[in-house]
């Protein structure tokens, strides 16, 4: 096992925990933001190439993948962090137990998908493309096994290797997608018998997106081979597996409920919208493209999750843990409000990332960004059930949120279309934040500055609404008004929290004064 970094050794100065979390989030964030930005570049490629109904197929299948990815992980990623940090079992055996179990169940899943691909394609109303089914299943299998190896890298603070492999995976995925959909497709249209033209099959169409993803996932697993080999050197412990799976299975419920909240709309829109199948798929494509415009918020939350989960577990025994968690939430919300304003105030620029046929959905982007912000707050608040092993209660909160999502989708989508789906997201996450905060106050009280947090959210929304009002009143360009509002927000943060930021950046420990960044 990789030894702890020198900064964790006794007698050496210790970095401020916020600085450590920020540095880890930055590394994961660079890989996530840059990598997903590369992926984000596919949005214009796809939306300028395919009609909304065709793009809707991609959105639909990736929504299905979100649900299956949670089921195929069995919540064992979080379970691995919990039992590895507990110290009751050798870390290598915890890893081996998780990895071997997931390899077995995912292999069985892939076999079933291959054998049943045709009836499943019929069920999903894609009878002409049964190959999509086993391609998707293969991607899920490779990603589930790879997720355990990535979890080990995260637990060992090997963010650099994590980021490198992630970037290579995404780079290959994006590169192959552009190669097939842009180069090979154009070559086929020019000369079907050319070398590149023969690689394009019009019957596969958007299915090349899945082929590129499959190749990238396979490459990722090859790069993770050293971590996978380590998993077969340890020992599968039955006496460890039983408590491990009991702890982890509620995380499946939590994760599945979370996917309902995040992705059920894209899986269900074609069934809930009151139009014919072709129109419903076109509406799904427009909504999914609009969802992509909220990607910056999702990227930041993802980066924070990667760094935050192991940090929260490892820092839980420190005397000032709860005060630190409160400060983390405060700065997290400031960053999220900044991202909300960055996208909404400059939406006139961001809109060009999607084709003209998709821009009728721009009105839902602010709602989706705000929903993502509250999701991020919930991610912070949810530490209470993870640190106190009350995962069943946490599952209850997620299930309640899923129930709200399902109810509102059934109610609002037939009436308001995909706008109803966006508002369902927001109401769901606000409700989950309230529930989690109240339960956290009882089981793991953290001195969150709740009014400061909500004040920043309200201030951000007010600035966005003010920009809409000021633009026609002042007759200024939208980008000028947006820049002015963003500057007001940054100035307010500097005045209200600037001194605290400078104070929290000071290293801790007896030798702190001698440390240099």
UniProtKB/TrEMBL annotation:
Annotated InterPro entries: Poly_Biosynth_Transport
Membrane topology: Multi-pass membrane protein
Coiled-coil annotated residue ranges, if any: none
Localization: Cell membrane
UniProt KW keywords: Cell membrane, Membrane, Transmembrane, Transmembrane helix
Annotated TM spans: 21-41, 61-81, 93-116, 132-153, 165-184, 204-223, 244-264, 284-304, 325-347, 367-385, 392-412, 418-439, 451-470, 476-496
One GO location term (cellular component): plasma membrane
Domain of life: Bacteria
PANTHER family associated with the record: O-ANTIGEN TRANSPORTER-RELATED, PST FAMILY PREDICTED COLANIC ACID TRANSPORTER
Protein name: O-antigen/teichoic acid export membrane protein
Species this protein is from: Thiobaca trueperi
